[in-house]
Amino acid sequence: MLKSTIKAAAIAVAAALIAAAAPASAADKLKVGFVYVGPVGDLGYSYQHDVGRIALQKALNDKVETTFVENVPEGADAERVIAQLAQSGHGLIFTTSFGFMNPTLKVAQRFPKVKFEHATGYKRANNVATYSARFHEGRTVIGAIAGKMTKSGIIGYIASFPIPEVVSGINAFTLSLKKVRPDAQVRVVWVNSWYDPGKEAAAAKALIDQGADVLSQHTDSPAPIQAAEERGIYAFGQSSDMSKFGPKAHLTSIVDIWDGYYINRAQAVLDNKWKSEDTWGGLDSGMVVLSPYNPNLPKDVVAMADQIKNDLIAHKITSFDGPFKNRDGKEVIPAGQHLNDQQILTMNYFVEGVQGDLPK
Amino acid sequence: MSPDVIAAVMMSVVAAATPLLLAALGELVTEKAGVLNLGVEGMMLIGAVAGFAAAMLTGSWIVGIVAAAFAGMAMALIFAVLALTLLANQVATGLALTIIGVGLSALVGRPFIGVPLPRLPQLYVPGLTDLPVVGRLIFGQDLLVYLSFALVVGIWWFLEKSRAGLVLRAVGESHDSAHAIGYPVIGIRYLATLFGGACCGLGGAYLSLAVTPMWAENMVAGRGWIALALVVFATWKPVRTLAGAYLFGGLAFGQLFLQGLGFSIPSQFLSMLPYVATIVVLTLISRDATRIRLNTPACLGKSYHPDH
């Protein structure tokens, strides 16, 4: 309750600031608003969206004016923030978290002339487009690297929430890992938070104590990298390049790059060419990028990783090529086929080789 | 499990327990003087950011730790002025202090986001630290862990054995009587509140300097509230606070450890255990009126004005 009070106060202040800023803006500029679920200082998910916003401002500086509201809780408050942005003359509004889906659609109905873009959701309307990135493609690459680098065959995986995006990441990672190292297993620990450095560090230590010698994470703080560095094992970062938190441990990070997408979409509005559509970009679109590899990564491992990356970009392979089985031994997809987008977006099972609970 | 694994697990439990212990000990002293400061979370956050900033800018751990203690104390001073001198409601003021702490630490901490810092150094005694299992546990901790143990003993001695401690308890039990005898009630409460703030600052600094040497917004993540619950759970006794902190810390780490081994206990259930345990303890002690009277400071949370 307290948390929501804080957030409500923050929103009230933010809304007041937006309102105050509105009259001063030039009328002919396109106003672009961004709504973030976390602080821009999380150095992870919201931070990367804000990097995209800044790139947009730089690229189209004389034509657009950008604003953002951070720390917006998913729910009724979000609706107020989005409506406030629409009311104060914004022509294009990006709502960047899954939980903003229904609020975005509700506000979009009231403001048919304003264009909305919702990240990671699946509901669209005439003036609501959706966009997301195929984060799991990055996990296919790092899974193979993990297979080469592990000695114990135990990989620790620090996970946030059991939503399809995270589950499909774990599965993509495990499928790729087992191609390189068939006897390896992935141990999943849920921390039920996107960002709690203390808890993420504790989860990392618990996994290391159990023999994990490579860590992967789907949470946003660099704490697991620090823990890996302290114990002398390897780890992969998430959302932004985390190499400085563990120069020896950090192998690479999966980085989300929204710059190009935001610039294109704002340009489309300026050119009157904007349409409501669904964009799901992967390594091929540049939305998902791997940060520079650790210089100590052996040459043959780098070559293998690059090969997988290039095959994904060229669509020669996908993250979910058959045949593979789920954890109960049932075949999910036969040889020669791969999962379609809908099957990936609704994934709610673990593949063979994953150890750990999957909360329903 | 091999002895090495057991030792490693114990080290992780120490890391989880120490911030709770430091903050709870401080709050215990504050509450023993009859002051209920709910701003623990905010004071911990300010301590975390101040400790990190000072250690990073000066390159000195000692400066970082001292800065954290003073920053926590400064927050406690705001509380003391409002609640003790101006007689504002203690519950409301404490909550406000937490809200201020969350915002202020985020604001002050902006330049320090994403900056790495080496861990607070741990003791190394050749020979002793290398002993199997107990070596690192006893001879391989950092300054703040040893300090937290020293505080348990020190506070126990102070409250149970010293005259000054008796006076502090008297102020917490009956401020009118203490005043009538001639003790400066408000002054003593000021000191107890400031001491509590310093300890909370240190608890926060343990997170930003030792557990995860970095600054991140809201990194205390609710541990201040657990520390508050811990004081009640421990029925205002320092040694029980120690046991409680290690129990809560052990639960927090244990649930992650069990998950890795494939046991499926809903983590939400384990997250709420500290609070459930506190309610159970409260209910148990409430059944026995004498025990409450012996434990809960009678004037806890009550404002005091000498003219009344």
Description of the structure:
The complex is a heterodimer of chains A (360) and B (308). Chain A is an alpha/beta fold. Chain A has 2 domains: 2-133, Rossmann fold, CATH 3.40.50.2300; 135-255 and 289-355, 3-Layer(aba) Sandwich (Rossmann fold). Helices cover 40% and strands 20% of the residues of chain A. Chain A contains 11 helices and 15 strands. In chain A, the strands form 3 sheets. A 7-stranded mixed β-sheet of chain A has the order 12-10-9-8-6-7-15, with helices on both faces. A 6-stranded parallel β-sheet of chain A has the order 2-1-3-4-5-11, sandwiched between helices. In chain A, helix 5 (135-149) packs parallel to helix 6 (164-180) and helix 5 runs antiparallel to helix 10. Chain B has one domain (3-295): ABC transporter involved in vitamin B12 uptake, BtuC (Orthogonal Bundle), CATH 1.10.3470. Chain B is built from 13 helices and no strands. Chain B has helices spanning 3-32, 40-58, 61-85, 90-108, 134-139, 143-161, 163-173, 175-181, 185-211, 223-233, 238-260, 267-286, 289-295. The longest helix of chain B is centred in the first third of the chain and has 30 residues, at 3-32. Chain B is globular. The mean pLDDT of chain B is 90. Chain A binds chain B through residues 2, 5-6, 9-10, 39, 41-43, 156, 187-193, 195-203, 205-210, 212, 221-223, 226, 230, 244-245, 355-357, 359, and chain B through 5, 8-9, 11-12, 15-16, 19, 95, 98-99, 102-103, 106, 109-110, 113-114, 116, 119, 207, 211-214, 216-219, 221, 223, 252-253, 256-257, 259-264, 266-268, 271.
